[in-house]
Design brief:
mainly alpha, abc type-2 transporter like fold
């Protein structure tokens, strides 16, 4: 117990003596949480600017323009009556779409000639383009239905009959999870998971590598030469501090930015524990195998940086090549953490629904610990021989 207390205090002292590690560990999660929450607080895009080319300039085309401007996603920033320099204006003003109302639009509708309204979306930003497309399709679809029903009424059909003939069946779409289509609810888990992983790996890269570089490993081994105990004592302070940081994120930033907390918080804390432990053991393994702080940090950053993309969070795993999923994505703790976390937070899942991801993380923890154990045992034996 005396040795444990002495080593625990030593590890805390080592950690807090490294100003860079302390800054990264505390500032990165807090800074990213504030930045991401503030950036995506609105949750969805509104008032996206579009340009309308109205070659008809009739009451019906004006009605269409007003309807587009009334949509929550759209803002008709400019209307012109000639198809001139439209593409240049889209580039200069970052319009998300150009909508072309053809000449004789109203007349052709009255004569049942089915004129065509062309919409050109600005695909340089897929998120704003998708929101704009949704708004434009809703407006044009509603207007199209209204015109058809009015035409039937003029032919003598009652309004109720005209509606049933135009629309023989109803379509109701319910969004089970994230019904408000809030982008913050979607992006928050991925960003915070990636940040916490990166922070843990950076700090753990220094754990044993710093001992080797400073030649203090011999002092550490004098206190205890048990690989299990040394791994435990190196892990414990970071595990405690990481849980405190997760607590700040959950109970500080989640309410601040109105992000939905997972329904099954106990299952969520178990998931956080396994995810943190897997990253801690990964960091320790690399730190033992590469006794240079710079080299260990570089290797772990090479693992951490692409993990957000390869985890399947922003781009589904079934859209990736099979070899990427098998040999890269499935070997990253973040992949299984985010898959389970999304179910727990957005879908209200229980422990039973995420047991597959839990077992994968448990196996990762065991494998990484065993590899770390034998790597450290080799270092200790080598030290004793010299």
């Amino acid at each position: 117990m005396n040795i444990f207390s002495k080593l625990f205090k030593r590890e805390l002292k080592l950690f807090f003596s490294n100003s860079v590690a302390v800054f990264i560990f505390f500032a990165a999660p807090i800074g990213y949480a504030l930045m991401v929450g503030s950036t995506y607080m609105q949750g969805k895009l509104t008032n996206l600017e579009v340009i309308v080319v109205d070659a008809d300039n009739t009451p019906l085309s004006n009605k269409m323009i007003d309807a587009l401007d009334d949509n929550q996603y759209l803002d008709v920033a400019e209307v012109q009556y000639l198809q001139k320099e439209v593409e240049q204006k889209v580039v200069e003003n970052d319009y998300v779409a150009a909508i072309y109302i053809p000449d004789e639009f109203e007349g052709n509708i009255l004569q049942k000639r089915q004129p065509e309204v062309n919409v050109e979306l600005n695909g340089s930003n897929m998120v704003s383009g998708n929101y704009a497309s949704s708004g434009i399709q809703k407006v044009l679809g509603t207007l199209n239905a209204g015109i058809e029903i009015e035409s039937m009424k003029k032919q003598g059909l009652p309004e109720a009959t005209a509606k049933t003939q135009f629309q023989p069946f109803n379509v109701t779409v319910n969004r089970f999870y994230n019904p408000a289509n809030n982008y913050l609810q979607f992006i928050w888990p991925g960003i915070m998971g990636a940040v916490m992983q990166q922070v843990i790996l950076i700090v753990m890269a220094l754990s044993f590598a710093m001992e080797f570089e400073n030649e203090s490993f011999r002092k550490l081994v004098k206190l205890s030469d048990s690989p299990t105990f040394l791994i435990f004592i190196k892990s414990l302070p970071i595990m405690v501090l990481t849980f405190l940081m997760w607590g700040l994120v959950y109970y500080g930033f989640y309410p601040l930015f109105k992000v939905m907390l997972p329904a099954a918080m106990l299952s969520n804390w178990i998931l956080v524990f396994l995810f943190t432990l897997a990253n801690v053991f990964l960091g320790i393994l690399v730190s033992i195998c590469f006794p240079s702080q710079l080299k260990a940090t570089e290797i772990l950053m090479a693992i951490s940086m692409p993990s957000f993309i390869l985890s399947g969070f922003t781009w589904p795993l079934n859209g990736m090549p099979e070899w990427v999923v098998t040999y890269v994505s499935n070997l990253i703790p973040l992949t299984h953490f985010l898959k389970a976390y999304r179910k727990l937070e957005l879908m209200g899942a229980s422990l039973g629904n995420v047991m597959q991801q839990f077992w994968v993380l448990i196996i990762m923890c065991v494998v990484l610990f065993v590899l770390s154990y034998f790597a450290l045992q080799y270092r200790i034996r080598r030290h004793h021989k010299t």
